[in-house]
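Sequence in, structure out. Go.
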Amino acid sequence: MEAVSPRYQVVECKTVDSTVISGWLYIVEGPAPAIIMSHGFNCVKSMTLPDVAEAFQNLGYNVLLYDGRGVGESGSGLSNLIDPLQMAEDLSDIYTYVAGLPSVDAKQIILWGISFGAVISACAAAIDRRPKALVMVCPLFSYVQPHRAERVFATIIKDRVSQLRGNPPYSLPVYTPCGENPIGMGGSGGPGGLEAYQLMAEASAAENSHFRDHVMFQTYLKLALFRPKEYMDMIRTPVLMVIPELDNISSPQEQREAFARLTCPKTEYCAKNKGHLDIVTGETSRELIGAMSAFLRETLEGVPGSSFEE
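Output:
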């Protein structure tokens, strides 16, 4: 039986500091609109989203699905140091690369992000006025929980002192088998944390995923200083925010609080009976893709879509 050829091309682009970003480019006949997909925390491009990218490709969109700086096959001097504001800067450079592709209509590029990638995309759109639209799927807004802060901050400084003495940086798994992490982010200690641990474990076991189940401890310094909700009122492009009804990793209430801060044209879509990690999978994912498509058609073409509310 012949192997099925992938529906994407492996591509690379560079940021302003020459960091190489690795991506999969799903091409359609163009020039046509393009979607830039930013993944969840420490996730690589082979996890979950290829099916979503193919669905958008079938609808006539070019799609770039990429590994963030220091994650997967993308470069960085520091492996798995997750720096959200740096990633938001990188996204503007990725946008410039996509805008120059022959199959892409440079005036019709959408930023699309899920979980951590949703707030990365939002931060990029807060400064970069070029995106035609922004789709935020189950955005994750909170990271260091107050009751964990002091202990984590002390360890951050201890690690920095240790590195200055010539020791390697401290790193650790994103979640323990109990579904916990030191800062209490992403459903830590509850069902959401256990689900996230399982996702990471499956990614670690997958062949050729280039996934590394650890982050540098200094990631928590970057997250402690990250305030994505404060950038929401800086966004000018139309926004679709998809909020899973049963999200146990990013509070639906907090997602709606962030949505309320948006002053741009905005649409909320409640994904009923869906959680954080199954939001784009399963049979009901077709309904979600349909809602996104309707939003994008209205935004790009001025064609009224069907109701976005489920």
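Check: Residues 306-310 have pLDDT under 50 and may be disordered. The beta strands are 9-14, 20-26, 32-38, 62-66, 104-114, 133-137, 171-172, 215-216, 239-244, 266-271.
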